[in-house]
Design brief:
The chain is an alpha+beta fold and 372 residues long. The protein folds into 3 domains: 116 residues, TATA-Binding Protein, CATH 3.30.310; 83 residues, no CATH class; 107 residues, Double Stranded RNA Binding Domain (2-Layer Sandwich). 30% of the residues lie in helices and 30% in strands. The strands form 2 sheets. Strands 1, 2, 3, 4, 5, 6, 7, 8, 9, 10 and 11 form an 11-stranded antiparallel sheet that branches. β7 and β8 form a beta hairpin. α1 crosses α2 and α5 packs antiparallel against α7. The radius of gyration is 22 Å and the shape is globular.
Length: 372
């Protein structure tokens, strides 16, 4: 039915398959079938946490001329663009509120970048998951069960000056490219936080998988065995997003109840050492158009109050040590708003992990409200 590369009214073959499907109750196994029928097209995935409303219902409201369809468990949206129409589909995972947003475009395509801008506009109702360092590194380790893992390209961000770092390794006969752990360790030795890895899994003669991993929980499948991509990469992205959603859900402050331990954004070193560094933190939060910031203290520690006007969520952000940012949710703190704030800071400052603080908070509730 779809004999050429851009069948179905200008759609890629994979988009046309997904748009025409009648029932998708088989989940990702069904997606694997469509990918096998369109083997030369990329599959880009962004793993999202939806706060109450299915993702495409939220995104459709931002694109008035988009056409929506539902097929079984899967919703699809066809969007017109000057570069050609395209389809995105939302596939539920094993975890409530966690979805894989799927398209057949590389992440560098202008149309997929439009999707990412739409996701940005949809926060806090819809947020991607920023992976902890361990989650990101473990993806490559899990893939090593299927063959040697080599890095062909790496991008990172230097923490000191926010400049970009890019490394590439060409395939040469008989010469192994660095493993994912070697590449990550080398970048970190230069003071950089790795953001993306392009991996070749298998032998030089035969690839089990060619995949691009993004630390802002996403991946692009370029070729190989899609079932491995789904079983290893997509399942781990969904697990990480579910773990993050569980961590950030229901953390709002309650009257006459003890203050819970804050969310800790743990940094790889003591980088918030002076007023200039904490000033960068204040500016990063203030760049968001729907957020206001009130700085209460700058010395000897940073204390600012953040209000997200999209849903009224509010937070106290504390820097008491140079290697950690602590976020104390206020009396209203939605999952989406807390995820956006903590993950944005984690991405900007190269966080190792975002967790609940292990110890009882050193700041009391009286400390937080004394100067408000």
């Amino acid at each position: 039915m779809f004999a050429n590369e851009h069948a179905g009214g200008g759609l890629t073959r994979l988009d046309a398959f997904v748009w025409s499907m009648q029932d998708a109750r088989e989940g990702l196994e069904g997606l694997s079938e469509y990918v096998q029928r369109a083997p030369h097209e990329p599959v880009t995935v962004e793993t999202l946490i939806a706060d109450g409303v299915p993702p495409l219902e939220t995104l459709a409201g931002l694109v008035p001329d988009a056409e929506a369809r539902e097929s079984g468990l899967v919703a699809s949206l066809k969007i017109e663009h000057s570069d050609g129409p395209f389809v995105i589909s939302a596939w539920p995972t094993a975890f409530a509120g966690v979805f894989h947003l799927v398209g057949s475009l590389p992440s560098t395509d202008a149309r997929w970048q439009k999707v990412e801008r739409l996701i940005g506009r949809a926060t806090p109702r819809l947020v991607p998951c920023f992976l902890d360092h361990g989650d990101f590194a473990d993806l490559g380790t899990a893939l090593s069960e299927y063959g040697d893992v080599e890095v062909s390209r790496l991008t990172a961000r230097r923490r000191a000056d926010i400049s970009s770092l890019t490394r590439g390794w060409q395939q040469r006969s008989g010469v192994a490219r660095p493993s994912h752990l070697q590449a990550i360790n080398d970048a970190e030795a230069e003071g950089a936080s790795v953001r993306t890895l392009t991996l070749h899994v298998g032998s030089q003669e035969a690839a089990v998988l060619n995949v691009h991993l993004r630390r802002m929980a996403g991946a692009t499948f370029y070729g190989g065995d899609f079932s491995v991509f789904a079983r290893v990469v997509l399942s781990r992205l969904a697990t990480a997003a579910s773990r993050r959603a569980t961590l950030l859900t229901g953390r709002q402050r309650a009257v006459r109840e003890p203050l819970r331990a804050p969310i800790a954004i743990r940094l790889p070193g003591a980088s918030l050492v002076d007023a200039e560094a904490t000033g960068d933190l204040v500016q990063e939060v203030a760049r968001q158009s729907t957020v206001s910031v009130a700085v209460l203290h700058r010395n000897p520690y940073l204390h600012m109050v953040v209000t997200d006007y999209t849903d009224g969520s509010n937070f106290d952000v504390i820097v008491a040590t140079a290697d950690s940012i602590q976020v104390f949710p206020g009396f209203r703190a939605s999952l989406g708003a807390l995820a956006r704030l903590s993950q944005r800071l984690g991405e900007r400052f190269g966080a190792v992990e975002i967790v609940e603080a292990a110890r009882e908070p050193s700041i009391s509730l009286e400390d937080l409200v004394a100067n408000i």
